[in-house]
Amino acid sequence: MIQTIPLGRVLKETVATPYCDLVTRPTGAAVRGYIQKAIAGSEAPTTMLDFTEVGLLDFSCADEIVAKLLLDTDPGTDRYVMLLGTREDHTEAIDHVLNHHALAIAVVTSPDEPPQLLGRVTPELQRVFHCVFRLGPGDAGSIADVLGWTLERAADALLTLSLLRLLRAEAGTFHPLPR
Fold it and tell me: Are 113 and 159 part of one and the same domain?
């Protein structure tokens, strides 16, 4: 089950503005507060933040909405956040703030392709992430076999992706996030 939050609509309801631009830190904080309440009130493990109706996204709003939302997520919960409908200028701002905080997030660009990763992820982590999305759930042994890696290397990458909340770990098996 996935919850989708259209940020353009949230902006208009939260800040009562006719504009579709996410600018200024107070605006970002208000929108993040709305998102946090929506996530807390939902049973869906994955929340999609839909940027389709968003115009400009400045660095302060990207930091308040995306980075601080990820930083505030309780690591003990089974909750995940992904992005949808981002444009190139959105992803540049988001990528910048995520790199600053050593965070990462998945962005759905097409239903037929694996999500893209933004933030602090190495090419090695990207490779493992795409492998899990392409092949489905797997453990370190199966990923190591597919990639021709050692078991330890695959296990480290899978654990890192799980800690970044880019994959869901369950009893030694790593699952792609539903989208």
Answer: no
Percent of the chain with pLDDT over 90: 86
One domain for residues 113 and 126 = no
Token code pair at residue 146:
């597919």
Answer yes or no: do 57 and 71 share one domain: yes
Pairwise CA distance, residues 23 & 52, whole Å: 16
Q: Helical H runs in the chain?
A: 7-15, 25-40, 59-62, 68-72, 88-100, 123-135, 140-147, 151-163
How does DSSP assign 51-101, residue by residue? Answer: -TT---B-HHHHIIIIIHHHHHS-TTS--EEEEES--HHHHHHHHHHHHHT
Provide the domain limits for residue 167: 121-179
Question: In terms of domains, do 19 and 105 share one?
Answer: yes
Band the pLDDT of 18: cuts 50, 70, 90.
confident
pLDDT single digits (tens) 54-109: 999 999 999 999 999 999 987 778 899 999 999 999 999 999 999 999 999 999 98
The terminus-to-terminus CA distance of the chain in angstroms comes to 9
CB 111 within 8 A of CB 133: no
